[in-house]
């Protein structure tokens, strides 16, 4: 793709660096911004810079937040004894869209995957255990994508929590095995949360 302007080329390359954005789409976005009033483009740029500089992780659940504690954790109307464990921020958003869950969250930051070089120490599992120990948590829901790596993560966490008086449950398998939680439709995901079931390992089932 040839450009008559170095500035346009730099803008296209910047947009094309985003997931799912090709060079043609990036060019359309750049040309759209160029055709907008200067103040619109400036607001767009300022919003991105402000977001990147000021966004932070919630000190309790590791969700993204404007404040040290996110608005979900600070909402006293939510069930403080219930924690939903998810892989990433997108899963929090997906579950919130269902309007079927009114507890708290804990964002792991991924799942255990030896192939990808991700071990338990790379996730916020120890922080989760600390929350269960410090707070009056009655139940944790494993809302983790039903993949081999996801099941491995669920098993590991359940073992870490085995010595605590806390119920461990998993979402119902309305989400197909191998599927990603964030891509499940709202109705299916909402029903999976409501119809959650106690988590049992193979050892429990054989015992």
Question: In a few lines, what is going on in this structure?
Answer:
By secondary structure, this protein is α/β, with parallel strands linked by helices. 42% of the residues lie in helices and 13% in strands. The chain is built from 8 helices and 7 strands.
Overview of the structural elements:
By secondary structure, the chain is of the alpha/beta class. It is 42% helix and 13% strand. The protein is built from 8 helices and 7 strands. The longest helix has 17 residues, at 38-54. Mean pLDDT is 87; it is low at 175-179.
Number of helices: 8
Average pLDDT: 87
Q: What's the gyration radius in Å? A: 21 Å
Spatially, the strands of the biggest sheet line up as: 4-3-5-6-7
State the separation between the terminal residues, measured CA to CA. 64 Å
The CATH architecture of the largest domain: 3-Layer(aba) Sandwich
What class, by secondary structure content?
alpha/beta
Our count of domains comes out at 2
Strand content: 5-15%
Q: Main β-sheet, in a few words?
A: 5 strands, mixed
Which blocks of ≥5 consecutive residues have pLDDT under 50? Answer: 175-179
What share of the residues lie within helices?
40-55%
Principal-axes shape call: elongated
Oligomer: single chain
- Give the beta-strand count: 7
CATH class of the largest domain: Alpha Beta
| Sequence of secondary-structure elements | HHHEEEHEHEHEHEH
Q: Using the coordinates shown, work out and report the CATH topology of the largest domain.
A: Dna Topoisomerase Vi A Subunit, Chain: A, domain 2
């Amino acid at each position: 793709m040839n450009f008559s302007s170095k500035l346009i080329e730099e803008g296209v390359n910047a947009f094309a660096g985003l997931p799912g954005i090709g060079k043609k789409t990036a060019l359309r976005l750049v040309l759209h911004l160029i055709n907008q009033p200067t103040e619109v483009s400036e607001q767009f740029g300022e919003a991105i810079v402000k977001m990147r500089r000021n966004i932070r992780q919630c000190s309790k659940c590791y969700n993204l937040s404007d404040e040290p504690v996110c608005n979900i954790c600070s909402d006293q109307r939510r069930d403080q004894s219930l924690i939903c464990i998810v892989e990433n921020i997108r899963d929090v958003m997906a579950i919130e869209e269902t309007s079927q869950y009114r507890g708290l969250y804990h964002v792991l930051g991924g799942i255990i995957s030896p192939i990808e070089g991700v071990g338990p120490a790379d996730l916020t599992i120890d922080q989760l255990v600390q929350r269960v120990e410090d707070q009056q948590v009655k139940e944790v829901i494993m809302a983790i994508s039903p993949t081999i790596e996801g099941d491995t993560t669920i098993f590991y966490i359940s073992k870490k929590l085995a010595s605590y008086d806390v119920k461990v449950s998993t979402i119902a398998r309305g989400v197909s095995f191998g599927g990603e939680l964030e891509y499940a439709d709202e109705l299916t995901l909402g029903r999976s949360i409501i119809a959650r079931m106690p988590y049992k390992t193979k050892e429990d089932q054989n015992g």
